[in-house]
Design brief:
Strand content: 15-25%
Bound molecules: (2S,3R,4R)-2,3,4,5-tetrahydroxy-N-oxo-pentanamide, cobalt (II) ion
Number of helices: 13
Number of domains: 2
């Protein structure tokens, strides 16, 4: 018998807010998990501290599947971003413990290496087309083989994805949500011009990606996909909100631009028709958002049957713990597509010592037992929680829209 003796939530803000779970055992081995939910961090903290941790003490940490089922079925109130992040935090910490006990890097425990490195895409964000093209150049110089491009649009205040610095983009910027503006027709005219220019400046070799961030209706998304076909995007992401999975049938009928969706999904049930009807090409679900390694590998296996590949969300609000775990997962998962990689601020990297590394467009998992990411608690304590929310968006006439 082995026992969980203690579990603690650590909230810190080294550059941005993170919720980290540390699970300790009677054998001295501990595991680290991430439960960060951007703009709603304390809801997960309460879920963990008030409802989950008391149930964990005394349990055998080796029984990962049973603990997952206990937390999922046992909650009665299933699914949702808060619940599934709390479950993910526990699950990842338990996989970390198991891999450390086995003396293996997590990818070995999952089934071993399927590839040499994990293809990642970086974020080029510019205030206009010239600036965005310049930023794409910067990422190419750093060795990136795949680059997401977002640009400011003339007349649209705070269009999605426009950065404030060169290397870091963080949308959660204010204690109360910043109000941004959206204009669909300006965007639909602008986006094809952006990619026409990027192909002219950077050639055919580099993979280009784009995030619509839920702003279009299905028929508008179909039109944009069609207009972007000449520029051969790697994917068009979150073209329309996906609460209604059927919406993607309409988009699919109109374009061969590959489609990605799912960074806000929590379980397989959010993506079941999208996958089984082959309405998408890449699934954006990730470890922290979807109940951890235990659930995401089940989703990935289901997706593999339909030739849907993974494209894990990897924005800066996913802590280095999630990124590190994702790199192990991606090293193993047979139907890997690509991994998003937004670099963390240096303060974040200092608080979370890790052994993954970027080289020539790929992330490489380290060989330390576990997922390879730790937390420096003394340093974390120097960065107290600072409330920040994501923006909201309105149309020109003042109506609320999807941010
Ligand atoms: O806006 O993670 O593809 N990446 C994204 C992100 C999300 C943030 C929200 O917290 O859409 O930048
Ligand atoms: Co996105």
């Amino acid at each position: 018998m082995m026992k969980i003796t203690k579990a603690r939530v650590i909230v810190c803000s080294p550059g941005r807010n993170f919720v980290t779970l540390k699970i300790e055992t009677d054998q001295g081995v501990y595991g680290i998990g991430d439960g960060t939910l951007n703009g709603r961090e304390l809801a997960v903290v309460s879920y963990l501290e008030d409802h989950v941790i008391p149930c964990l003490i005394g349990r055998d940490p080796r029984r990962i599947e049973d603990i997952w089922q206990y937390l999922y079925r046992g909650a009665y109130w299933r699914r949702g971003p808060v619940t599934m992040r709390a479950i993910a935090a526990v699950d990842v910490a338990l996989w970390d413990i198991k891999a450390k006990m086995a003396g293996m890097p997590l990818y070995d425990l999952l089934g071993g290496r399927s590839r040499d490195g994990v293809l990642v895409y970086g974020h080029a964000n510019g205030k206009d087309i010239d600036h965005t093209s310049e930023q794409v150049g910067l990422y190419r110089d750093m060795g990136y083989k795949a680059i997401r491009a977002q640009s400011g649009i003339p007349g649209v205040k705070g269009a999605y994805g426009v950065g404030r610095g060169d290397m870091y983009y963080e949308p959660a910027d204010s204690a109360l949500p910043t109000e941004t503006l959206w204009n669909t027709s300006s965007y639909l005219n602008f986006a094809p011009r952006l990619f026409e220019r990027l192909r002219a400046d950077h050639g055919e070799e580099v993979h280009l990606l784009h995030d619509v961030h839920h702003r279009l209706t299905p028929i508008e998304a179909g039109r944009l996909g069609k207009d972007l076909e000449p520029y051969r995007l790697f994917w068009m992401e979150d073209a329309t909100p996906a609460e209604n999975q059927e919406a993607f049938r309409l988009i699919r009928q109109h374009t061969t631009t590959p489609l990605a969706v799912g960074e806000i999904f929590n379980t397989l049930w959010d993506a079941k028709e999208l996958i089984s009807e082959q309405l998408i090409d890449y699934l954006r679900m990730t470890i922290v958002g979807s109940g951890g390694v235990t659930h995401l590998r089940r989703v990935a296996d289901f997706a593999s049957v339909y030739q849907v590949r993974t494209g894990c969300h990897g924005a800066t609000d996913l802590s280095p713990v999630t990124l590190g775990t994702a790199v192990h997962f991606d090293t193993w998962v047979p139907n890997f597509g690509i991994q998003e990689y937004m670099r963390h601020a240096p303060e974040t990297d200092d608080v979370f010592p890790h052994d993954y590394r970027f080289e020539d467009g790929y992330l490489h998992a380290g060989s330390a037992p576990g997922h390879g990411v730790d937390i420096d608690e003394a340093l974390a304590a120097k960065y107290p929680y600072s409330p920040k929310q994501l923006p909201v968006a309105r149309l020109q006439d003042g109506s609320m829209w999807n941010w």
